[in-house]
Amino acid sequence: RPLEMSAKKPVPFLRQVIPVTKKVHRDPRFDDLSGEYKPEIFMKTYSFLDSIKKQEKEMVQKQLKKCRNVEQKEKLQQLLNRMTQQEQAQKKQQKLRERELSLKRQQRELAKQGKKPFFLKKSEKRKLELAEKYAELKRSGKLESFLNKKRKRNAIKDKRRLPSQK
């Protein structure tokens, strides 16, 4: 505990202060000791979490079916929606990673054959992604509804950009 001193005596000019060892906090995201972040290795290491998340999702679905309380049901529904969205985002990220890896493999093969490597621009990658999305929608039969929504959205944007008529 701190040393108690009388307030009546003047404080000595050179008083002794005991240095306190300060705890050094380190953030593993920015620290070299933690190593370099590689998403492929991370996904392989923590792949067991996917099965746990799946079990939790099933448990939440069971609770949602049994639940009678409106507020509790709403909370469970929000939790379930968040879980599904996270799952979809993870799948999308995985697809993107696989696509990039396949492009890299193709470039390596071309380089082995003695050809000059060719790297896609961001805009070209986006076009390929869009084409893949359209192909997926066409396969699932949801292309028409998607295009209708897109048309409506663009029409609303166009109306907003037009000068107001009074």
From TrEMBL:
Residue numbers spanned by region Disordered: 146-166
GO cellular component: 90S preribosome; nucleolus
Subcellular location per the Swiss-Prot or TrEMBL entry: Nucleus, Nucleolus
Keywords: Coiled coil, Nucleus, Ribonucleoprotein, Ribosome biogenesis, rRNA processing
Biased composition (Basic residues): 148-166
Subunit note: Associates with 90S and pre-40S pre-ribosomal particles.
Family statement: Belongs to the RRP36 family.
Name listed for the protein in its UniProt record: rRNA biogenesis protein RRP36
Source organism of this protein record: Nipponia nippon
Lineage: Eukaryota, Metazoa, Chordata, Craniata, Vertebrata
